[in-house]
């Protein structure tokens, strides 16, 4: 039975590449396994010519290579593997060097035994330690359905993460939730994984925000704001996503604690007159201005838990009455690490912890959502902020649209 491993990546994933010995990736892990008849590197890129260094890696490991649509990984998975005529195909990310083969083998055997279209994992398990497994024929069939969708956001979300399509249409497919047979990792094993990650982060932090993605939090938030007079973005990085968002505001300020990012953004966007970049110190105390809208995406997790209260309080104080606050934060997936995978994430809260913190600091939560990779789901919450539905659904991120109370 042919089983193809597709390694999804872009050229940016090779930014920290120097040589084979220090380039931690999923490739050698897959090569050691005995599951796959073929392994192919599926690169998302606008370019037609494949980078020579990437070709060297493929030649060294004796794996196939394919280059295709940067914004449609589903097509890349199908087109890169169809020549092998596989029964099953599994999708991995290039930097998934921590892949757990023991759990993967167990899940794959379940797929074979029950002839499944795909398999899911419990809501508290970090899916990145495994890899999506699909029946190839089913993947081709859903691609046709996805391409015909009129909802552009939904279409793009499914193209980025096809497993979500199976999840949203479970009655049409044969699926199941896999048992987790591995125990939580030891502190020593967790430490080794995080040490490897630290080597990658300098290169990976150079990757620009994908503002063209329909499911990016910047584009997603635009529809809720529409227009405003004065906007602030906390941790704007090198400014790409912030500038995209600032188009709906008369004046905008992007804040970041990284001086190099601020300098780079100022130089890159100096011709845009209605925006400004400023350096800020953690825990992000803003200036004396009062804003109509404050956004903060994937920032709070970089602070210690004890600083979360002050961060949210500072945002509240920087808003005008009825001001809007938009927040997206990665949520902790407890297994198999019991702590955040990325070493630069100091504290990933639970959904209930985050929502209750917002309410305690005077915010009204107008909309609460969970994000399963690239798909947003509305959730209902109790008066204390606890989630009332979707308890068993994977919660990669929490997204909140909050309003400063009128009487504040």
Structure notes:
The protein is an alpha/beta fold and 408 residues long. It is 33% helix and 24% strand. The protein has 13 helices and 15 strands. An eight-stranded mixed sheet has the order 10-9-8-11-12-15-13-14, with helices on both faces. Helix 6 crosses helix 7 and helix 9 runs parallel beside helix 10. The longest helix is centred in the middle third of the chain and has 18 residues. The termini are far apart. The mean pLDDT is 91.
How many strand segments? 15
Mean pLDDT across the residues is 91
**What is the radius of gyration computed over CA atoms, rounded to a whole number of angstroms?**
22 Å
N-C termini distance: 65 Å
Summarize the helix and strand pattern as letters: EHEHEHEHEEHHHEHHEHEHEEHEHEEE
Quaternary organization: single chain
Q: Report the sheet-strand fraction.
A: 15-25%
**Strand order in space, largest sheet:** 10-9-8-11-12-15-13-14
Shape: globular
Q: Into which percent range does the helicity of residues fall?
A: 25-40%
Features:
408 residues; alpha/beta; 8-stranded mixed β-sheet; 5-stranded mixed β-sheet; 15 strands
Helices and strands, with pairings:
Layout: E1 3-10, H1 27-32, E2 38-44, H2 52-61, E3 64-68, H3 73-81, E4 88-93, H4 101-114, E5 118-120, E6 132-135, H5 136-147, H6 152-160, H7 162-168, E7 175-177, H8 187-204, H9 217-225, E8 228-234, H10 240-246, E9 249-256, H11 259-268, E10 275-279, E11 291-297, H12 305-318, E12 319-330, H13 351-360, E13 363-372, E14 375-378, E15 397-404
Parallel strand pairs: 1-2, 1-4, 2-3, 5-7, 8-9, 8-11, 9-10, 11-12
Antiparallel strand pairs: 4-6, 12-15, 13-14, 13-15
Helix pairs in contact: 6-7, 9-10
């Amino acid at each position: 039975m042919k089983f193809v491993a597709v390694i999804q990546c872009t050229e940016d994933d090779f930014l920290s590449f120097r040589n084979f010995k220090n380039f931690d990736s999923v490739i050698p892990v897959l090569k050691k396994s005995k599951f796959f008849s073929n392994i192919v590197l599926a690169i998302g890129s606008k370019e037609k010519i494949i980078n020579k260094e990437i070709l060297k890696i493929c030649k060294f490991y004796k794996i196939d290579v394919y280059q295709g649509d940067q914004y449609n990984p589903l097509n890349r998975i199908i087109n890169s593997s169809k020549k092998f005529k596989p029964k099953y195909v599994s999708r991995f990310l290039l930097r998934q060097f921590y892949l757990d083969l023991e759990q993967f083998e167990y899940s794959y055997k379940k797929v074979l035994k029950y002839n499944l279209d795909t398999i899911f994992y419990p809501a508290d398990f970090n899916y990145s330690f495994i890899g999506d497994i699909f029946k190839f024929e089913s993947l081709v069939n859903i691609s046709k359905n996805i391409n015909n969708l009129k909802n552009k956001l939904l279409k793009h979300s499914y193209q980025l993460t096809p497993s979500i399509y199976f999840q949203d249409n479970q009655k049409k497919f044969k699926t199941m939730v896999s048992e987790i047979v591995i125990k939580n990792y030891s502190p020593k094993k967790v430490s080794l994984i995080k040490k490897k990650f630290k080597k990658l982060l300098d290169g990976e932090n150079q990757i620009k925000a994908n503002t063209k993605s329909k499911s990016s939090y910047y584009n997603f938030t635009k529809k809720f704001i529409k227009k405003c007079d004065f906007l602030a973005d906390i941790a704007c990085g090198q400014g790409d996503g912030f500038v995209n968002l600032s188009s709906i505001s008369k004046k905008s300020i992007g804040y970041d604690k990284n001086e190099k990012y601020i300098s780079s953004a100022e130089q890159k966007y100096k011709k845009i007159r209605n925006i400004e970049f400023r350096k800020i110190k953690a825990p992000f105390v803003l200036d004396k201005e009062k804003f109509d809208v404050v956004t903060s995406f994937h920032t709070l997790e970089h602070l210690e838990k004890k600083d979360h209260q002050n961060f949210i309080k500072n945002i509240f104080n920087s808003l005008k009455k009825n001001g809007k606050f938009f927040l997206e934060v990665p949520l902790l997936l407890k297994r198999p690490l019991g702590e955040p995978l990325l070493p630069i994430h100091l504290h990933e809260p639970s959904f209930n912890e985050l929502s209750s913190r917002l309410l305690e600091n005077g915010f009204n939560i107008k909309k609460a959502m969970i994000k399963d990779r690239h798909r947003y789901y509305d959730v209902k919450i109790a008066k204390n902020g606890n989630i009332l539905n979707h308890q068993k659904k994977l919660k990669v991120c929490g997204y909140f649209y909050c309003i400063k109370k009128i009487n504040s």
